[in-house]
Amino acid sequence: MKYEYEDEDEKVYQNLYHSEMPQLTTNVNPIMEVVIMKPRGFEEIPQVIQLLWKRKSVLLNLKMMNPYDAQRAVDFVAGGTYAIDGHQERVGEMIFLFTPICVQVKSSKRAECIGQVSV
What we know:
Strand content: 15-25%
Distance between the termini: 80 Å
Order of helices and strands: HEHEHEE
Oligomer: single chain
Number of domains: 1
Number of helices: 3
CATH topology: Translation Initiation Factor IF3
């Protein structure tokens, strides 16, 4: 004995099974920006976190800062970058690249310990 609802369930199942999967779309800005910053004091550093939050990469040149403030800046930005699952890379003496999670950084020569970068 076959019930009426079995036919309908079978039709629904076949329609779901044979239909195409919906495409998920996201509103992502296709243009990635890199902001170059040369701060002179620590008071300019919170702006780096704001830029990362807006999914912009930041190349941070700390050569204009005294060593103590430069180390504070690296620690502060590294903590913020970690909090948003971003990436960081030392690219030169007192020059660092911080990127949001949506940017993958590939390097042929990675720093030995990114978490404790000395300036």
